[in-house]
């Protein structure tokens, strides 16, 4: 039989792990004892259903039902209005397992790693109080754009899934401090992630990354960047792709680079708008511009005098020489380490 803590305990914690079904019945507890329970651990009990008596612990703040065989969370879970942490790792739960009204729960920490989710339930995407969401080791194939609704989120753990694309809306999670996307199928990182100014740790190991966007250097508070297990190899440094510019782009480049005079009355409104979209070539030795057609160029930037990160930047044409050499073997020709402040990245994990 489970042992209940002393009634003098200010915060009662009840552990009911590896027990027989009869020992999991809380009906024998008095009302005063039930009101005292704030943490309940029901792990490793081979539960198929959550005991109904659990949902009558009105002051419960922490519930851990990990390592069971649960396939559904009952509607009565909504009775736990004080619940702040809900952990249900390693069960058989999926996106249809939760009550439709679950979004009304004021949960701050939700850990459902090691289940059978193929998509993030819509209820979760409306939980604006959520600070930590863990769905690692599931079967997720994508991150919905609605993830941006979780404005209080500080930790997002989606490692060990089947994700191949990161939507730019992730960049709207301005409170995010820890982003874990390891062990997926991600091929590129959206440059918009440079808006995550609070980010401390970015885990991207064991994906399919061949480069990083240069904008990642804007993450000034980043302390740990994990990249091991990605095809970040030297051969990509000379990889260039180039789509020939259209006649419209050629005309636009000529006007912008040679500063040809014109007034808004001289051109149709759509062309005036197009000319305002010009991007200046990042090569300081080049005065060119580009619109839609540019060269994708990968160069290595030194960090901490030890690691080189392949960063993406764009040039206006294949004839435009890079502002730094693409020879990864030459320290003299690679970007000066001093150009990257030492406090930008405390740890870069490449192997």
From TrEMBL:
Query: Do you know which PROSITE patterns this protein is assigned to?
Result: LRR (PS51450)
| Spans annotated as Disordered | 327-351
SMART domains found in the cross-reference section? LRR_TYP
GO terms for CC? cytoplasm
Q: Which ranges form a coiled coil?
A: none
Q: Which organism is it from?
A: Cyprinus carpio
> What's the protein name?
Leucine rich repeat containing 58a
Q: Which InterPro entries match?
A: Leu-rich_rpt, Leu-rich_rpt_typical-subtyp, LRR_dom_sf, LRR_domain-containing
Print the keywords alphabetically. Answer: Leucine-rich repeat, Repeat
Entry keyword annotation includes Repeat:
yes
